[in-house]
Design brief:
alpha+beta; GMP Synthetase, Chain A, domain 3; 4 strands
């Protein structure tokens, strides 16, 4: 109910603002101004319908898995593969055996971001190694280190 009130309030305020603008605009530009105002009113009235359309929220993808065949899914698979490659590169530089990488992607094309990463390791790490790996990987992927989850293969 609150959302309907907010929507009605925004339509009303746009109508008042548009009326004031139409009074100020010179007569030679009345047609163009009226067109712009009408388009803004149309967008404002139809805005709630845009929120009914499905949007990607957050998906967990492994580079080996298949997402739908759309262009956005292809970009997402490429992005996930690139993030996985970067995580493996950090692990290789540190001498850490990585078995698998799962990437949580947030946002949609073209604004994909890494939400979190789960790294399955081949061996257990010392506390210091794990801390350093999380920090370096987090800095490399531009995410907080606590979003880098480490798990040993076959264990927890």
């Amino acid at each position: 109910m609150e959302a309907i009130k907010e929507w009605a309030r925004s339509v009303y305020l746009l109508a008042v603002f548009s009326s004031a603008v139409l009074l100020i605009v010179p007569k030679t530009m009345q047609r163009q101004a009226r067109f712009v105002v009408e388009m803004l009113m149309l967008l404002c009235v139809l805005a709630p319908l845009f929120h009914l359309m499905p949007r990607p929220i957050e998906t967990t993808v492994s580079s080996g898995s298949y997402v739908s065949g759309s262009y956005t899914a292809s970009l997402e698979r490429f992005y996930v593969a690139e993030v996985e490659r970067r995580v493996r590169e950090v692990g290789q530089g540190a001498g850490i055996a990585i078995r698998d990488v799962e990437v949580v992607v947030t946002g949609s094309a073209p604004g994909f971001r890494v939400g979190a990463v789960k790294v399955v390791l081949g061996r257990d790490l010392t506390e210091e190694e794990a801390r350093r790996f999380r920090e370096v990987t987090g800095a490399y992927l531009n995410i907080p280190p606590d979003r880098v989850a480490l798990e040993v293969a076959g264990g927890g």
